[in-house]
Amino acid sequence: MNQDYIKPDNWSIIEEGFDASRVKSSESLFSIGNGAMGQRANFEEEYSGDTFQGSYIAGVYYPDKTRVGWWKNGYPEYFAKVLNAPNWIGINVKINGESLDLNICKSVDDFKRELNMKEGWLSRYFKATLLNDIQVEVFVKRFLSLDLDEIGAINYEITPLNSDAEIIFQPYLDSGITNEDTNWDDKFWDTTGISHKNNQAFIEAKTMKTDFHTCTFMESKVYISGKPILVEHNTKADSNHVSFSYAYPVKKGETYSVQKFGGYIVDRNHNKSQLVKVAKQVLKTATEKGFNQLLEDQKNAWITIWKMADITIEGDVKAQQGIRFNIFQLNQTYLGKDSKLNIGPKGFTGEKYGGSTYWDTEAYCIPFYMATKDQKVARTLLEYRYHHLDKAIENAGKLGFKNGAALYPMVTMNGEECHNEWEITFEEIHRNGAIAFAIYNYHRYTGDYSYIPEKGLEVLIGIARFWQQRANFSSDKNKYVILGVTGPNEYENNVNNNWYTNYLAKWCLDYTLDQIEKVESEFASDFLRIAKKVKLSKKELALWKTVADNMYFPYSEKHQVYLQQDGFLDKELISVEDLPKSERPINQKWSWDRILRSPYIKQADILQGFYFFEDQFSDEALERHFDFYEPLTVHESSLSPCVHSIQAAKLDRMEQAYAFYLQTSRLDLDDYNHEVHEGLHITSMAGTWMSIVEGFGGMRIKDNKLSFNPKIPKQWKEYSFKVNFRNHIIKVNVTQKQTNFEMIYGENLEILVNKKSLLLKNNVLKAVS
Amino acid sequence: MNQDYIKPDNWSIIEEGFDASRVKSSESLFSIGNGAMGQRANFEEEYSGDTFQGSYIAGVYYPDKTRVGWWKNGYPEYFAKVLNAPNWIGINVKINGESLDLNICKSVDDFKRELNMKEGWLSRYFKATLLNDIQVEVFVKRFLSLDLDEIGAINYEITPLNSDAEIIFQPYLDSGITNEDTNWDDKFWDTTGISHKNNQAFIEAKTMKTDFHTCTFMESKVYISGKPILVEHNTKADSNHVSFSYAYPVKKGETYSVQKFGGYIVDRNHNKSQLVKVAKQVLKTATEKGFNQLLEDQKNAWITIWKMADITIEGDVKAQQGIRFNIFQLNQTYLGKDSKLNIGPKGFTGEKYGGSTYWDTEAYCIPFYMATKDQKVARTLLEYRYHHLDKAIENAGKLGFKNGAALYPMVTMNGEECHNEWEITFEEIHRNGAIAFAIYNYHRYTGDYSYIPEKGLEVLIGIARFWQQRANFSSDKNKYVILGVTGPNEYENNVNNNWYTNYLAKWCLDYTLDQIEKVESEFASDFLRIAKKVKLSKKELALWKTVADNMYFPYSEKHQVYLQQDGFLDKELISVEDLPKSERPINQKWSWDRILRSPYIKQADILQGFYFFEDQFSDEALERHFDFYEPLTVHESSLSPCVHSIQAAKLDRMEQAYAFYLQTSRLDLDDYNHEVHEGLHITSMAGTWMSIVEGFGGMRIKDNKLSFNPKIPKQWKEYSFKVNFRNHIIKVNVTQKQTNFEMIYGENLEILVNKKSLLLKNNVLKAVS
């Protein structure tokens, strides 16, 4: 744990006291989003201290140049990256001519920030004494509407406490923004038009190269003691900036406030010639409702989300706050409405990692969305990859693979690869397996097979072809090997026979062969269509089987464990415990070569495989591998502790499971890896959900039935969660004594609890102790 | 072989006929240099076609930003790179108002370029018909003076053939140049002053950041039919450019010419406030001599070089041309006068590879300079590394090594690392061994031990410390292993137990222990000084010995060969012969991951080790390893064929040795690897010299004696070379029947020929058949 300043609270994220060194961290932690856009919790008014200003529009990206010192064949020429968007939240404040700037004023008192997750808003309160000795009290509330997802609203109140003062509000729009991660000094936005009238202003800007047209807009209105007043305002506009100035002589103790509505209209959703017009309509709808009604709607929209997605924990505020923070941020990032969107590892909270889609979606996020939303959402996420199949085939082609082999990109926005480190781009190929696994997982959970004949099988075939070609026969081992890969543990690069990769490759081949057989016999017309389209031959299938049947897996007889890769045992196996704290995180303290030859594991690798394919290994084998690999794992990936938490729970090591749970759920809140200032770890938050539902709740699908094996950490009085399973909604409540199951929606359903059958009936509570 | 347009000639490089697609290749091949500066063979007059303009000043570099998409700890923040320098050779030509530009004129006839290696000058002849139908004949001669190494001279003659014409010569200076390899759009040069008077002009410019101050200068004079004439000239100067215009109405058949002297004065050698003054003095000296006398001096200076360095080959013009091209370019690049300079892989002919010093110097160049120059030159090259020892210790420190361990940079200008690919910078650590080997090699050849107690031992200790710390104990193998390295074969990255690296590490430890013992017993005061300075302990030495004695070497019982690295046998060992030609060079056709998991070897790796430590392996072992690895070697490094040529000769495979000899000696002339347009491969040219002297001549040091085992390719009538050995100069002449040895300088010397003793006396020819 690296920080401890967030106040424990069941429903809110709270910071008290102003500390300039925490500003960037808090900007990440208090981020808000509504699935269509999002923003870091930047101050509205000027702030001259260290800050990372960031607003992001879903699906608006930029193809940045790929430049490396030493070019490798196969690198993308351009890669799409998350793009910092024009700023509409800005409201500069002048008090008797002095700018309100928390970085330079004499004192900041009673500073408090709150992110209210129950109702979906962000607020800030403080008293500030300016250099001119005027003390003011400020209260700001802001939210991005879930209902009208193109707009957000700000209410900014200021009260001079010790004297009258002339206060000027300067709400503005700014399209002269750059990316924090801009490497190559490119300009991303072209401002194409600025207009303003009365209290409204509009900046039209388009992204260079990708030509996304956007209109960033605002409307402002000022109030005294909550009553609208008419103030003549000045307007200033230049090439990428427009601001209004509302000056008013405010009496001591009187509250002067501005309400600002703003947001984006994007040609992803509207005709590009109509953007300003649409913006005006959206403003009209919003202002007619008014700030308070919009806020009321916001609360109700979040109530609906929480009704299905909430997890309650009694007796452990930090744990409760952690899980809600995770669920809240996931819902702020992705709501499953748009099939072209996906879940970026940093959501709308930062730029690191460039693209939007990683294997995180398939490996970590789909279970959360399957169980807390309509199953269409998960299907939409699968279809995202189906739409990218041609590009994945192209991508494999660039690396020399033939005959329809598909390699999905490591990082992408539009199906094209967005990353150019050879050891990742070309070698971290296990991602291909996660995409196949998600298809299997979707069918397993939802029971909906139709996706496979309709779309999934083509994806599986492309992936199977890749694996068959990527493996080669080693006459030395008399087996098929997979050389030169990077596994999920990115702290080993270009290794041979990474067990996880080999296992997944074999599984993909076997699974695809099974699905071909099933589709051929049960969906004949689909089969004919696909077989013709992808030119399947019996000979090819036989080759897949040969490779799958003869795959090599490195194993240590001495340790009775599979080896992470061929050379693993040559390393000095000193456990993390024996590593001085001052050396961690190793990715910030050590040079890369030292990391690579160390035994330290960034994230679950073999254990990730045991998680995916749990049924294929005994509990004893899991325990042996857990005991061998866990002590070497540094968890410097956000995706690691959740898997360990689930497995520790399965092994009845509840203390360990609980510690990992806290780590995954409070990874950002407590900044375990010293990096929260760069943004939040959104995708791993779905892993946190899994660590409760699958870890403590022991939820699985067994024999096509929903199955539970509930456990509870001793720190908790009780906890509860709901899952949406095949048109049933089941609420599970676990106490130290018993578990209550209640089907709150759906027909009779047989489930398994601790391997025993239990029949659930609508609204009948069943307790199992 | 990729091209075949260079005419075979014993002493010259000749191109006939103009072909725009060859311009960049020829600019490399016809490059000229004098050790202090050098330039590509760019045309003097305007050329709008594809060209790569390059002039370089020895030791003037620029610390460019290190930028990578994903930063790794340990990368240099800045790295020094070879810097393109202001252009002084430019002479634009206007004929009746039309620019002479070979890219756009109607026709170019009888075009001929010659690089005369015997005399050290470059010439160009052509007839051109302009768009205005005027036909002119042009003859240009240019050289960089070896005697006055701050100046070069150009004689540019033009004759209108079919009509009178007004011809304008516009000699100019230009400091507005950029690097071909500029990645980050930085500006490198700041022009600080421009002045001109009469026929002289001066541009003072300094490099950004490194603050090298230079004066680029010129003086021009025009002639009609060889007689100086006074022509009023216009002068144009702007912020980084100055030009004179000499217009003259030239009669049909009359020759109008300009002589231009130009060059650089640099504050590496002069007080920076005196640069223009020094330039004027240099111009005075040069113009007083005049073009013809300077050219005469040039010829004589080259005669002196060739007298010692020439290798003659009778009966094979291409082979003769090849070796002289190599010797010529080496002498153009480095003459051993300045201890801060070194030998860049591209010399003054291009920018690729950034820095100036690689392990090439120690592994390939030192033998050439030891045998063809005074031994001080080789000692100067060793001292270059001694001067960088502190920076090598700093560099190792950045990677986590302690206690005075030294890791020399992969690429450097000033001792700092210039490269930032982790698999090279952090992992291609065998370079450290080459630096130790060169110390051993210097002593072996020159017999001069004094360097070791004076300076070399400190370097050896730093290197030994690195190896001991870099190895780790594998309990699995019960041996010390070296994980995560890149060997000389850069087509494998991050491998474990690269045999060459492990062998070199062990050798360094053993050799350093031996030298410590010797210095302790024979140079006691040196030993005390060093032991105190570096804080040596008996315990540390014991640890070195443990690591050296227990080093692991991967070996295949089945193939009876050492393995290049632990995973080598898992690869599909398909020989290069069976690889379609269309797939080669693989570094241009394949993605990096495919290269890495292929068995193809970029350059001698295990065989490089067998070359260094020949005496430690039997001929049978050499043959086995050669037969195993050679068929997998693609020789896509220029440093590869020479080693294979030497070893093929040793194995009496003269056809193969000859083929490799042609490949190494004509690598650039015939452009084997499709890349000569980027510059020449200077350092490997010393390898070409070795392939004759050590390969065919069989020269070695055995039992502290010079030893030969001469062979001759059947294609040759005879060949000869000279070596400078411990104050003796010996000429060796090998025919198909016998070998003649003649000591042309020095006292009586016992040498070995085919393992038998032979006493050489001054000027007495001894024949051995």
From TrEMBL, chains A, B:
Domain spans labelled Glycoside hydrolase family 65 central catalytic: 324-690
**InterPro entries assigned:** 6-hairpin_glycosidase_sf, 6hp_glycosidase-like_sf, Gal_mutarotase_sf_dom, GH65_N, Glyco_hydro_65_C, Glyco_hydro_65_M, Glyco_hydro_65_N, Malt_Pase/Glycosyl_Hdrlase
Q: Where is the Glycoside hydrolase family 65 N-terminal domain?
A: 14-266
Record's keyword annotation contains Hydrolase: yes
Active site (UniProt): E490 (proton donor)
Domain Glycoside hydrolase family 65 C-terminal as annotated: residue spans: 699-758
Biological process according to GO: carbohydrate metabolic process
Q: What Pfam families does the record point to?
A: Glyco_hydro_65C, Glyco_hydro_65m, Glyco_hydro_65N
A GO MF label? hydrolase activity, hydrolyzing O-glycosyl compounds
Q: State if Methyltransferase is listed as a keyword.
A: no
Please provide the record's keywords in A-Z order.
Hydrolase
Highest taxon of the source? Bacteria
Q: Where does substrate bind?
A: W359, D360, K602, Q603
What PANTHER family does this protein map onto? GLYCOSYL HYDROLASE-RELATED (PTHR11051), MALTOSE PHOSPHORYLASE (PTHR11051:SF14)
Similarity remark: Belongs to the glycosyl hydrolase 65 family.
Q: Which NCBIfam families match?
A: PRK13807.1
Q: What is this protein called?
A: Family 65 glycosyl hydrolase
Originating organism = Algibacter marinivivus
Q: What is the lineage of its organism?
A: Bacteria, Pseudomonadati, Bacteroidota, Flavobacteriia, Flavobacteriales
